[in-house]
Specification:
3 helices, FSCA_dom_sf, globular, three-stranded mixed beta sheet, GMP Synthetase, Chain A, domain 3, MIP18-like, MIP18 family-like domain-containing protein, alpha+beta, Fe-S_Maturation_MIP18
């Protein structure tokens, strides 16, 4: 990955760390809900993500928050979100910071 793409990737991760599930006091990135962030040569961003549960009551809110926040980065052209449940989320996907925050370590 070249320097420009890496810088944009870093900005996207910073922005994703500002998105929270209202029921869990940890951001969705550290929860492991972001499976992939792909940036093409035109700075279109494709994000593959999941929820902790397929029946997440805050799903619409979280998706809208991700969309708006990543689109707010000036270098980003377009954002496509791909919601998947394969593989299903489990706590092994959480960062050490998330596990500590939730008292699971």
């Amino acid at each position: 990955m070249n320097e420009e793409l890496q810088a944009l990737q870093d900005k996207i991760v910073v922005m994703l760390r500002t998105v929270y599930d209202p029921e869990i006091p940890v951001n969705i990135y550290d929860l492991g809900m972001i499976y992939d962030v792909d940036i093409d040569e035109e700075n279109n961003v494709a994000i593959e993500m999941t929820f902790t549960s397929p029946s997440c009551p805050a799903a619409d809110y979280i998706l809208m928050d991700v969309q708006l926040k990543v689109e707010s980065i000036p270098e980003v052209n377009k954002v496509d979100l791909n919601l998947t449940f394969d593989p299903p989320w489990d706590r092994s996907m959480m960062s050490e910071e998330a596990l500590l925050e939730l008292g699971m370590m």
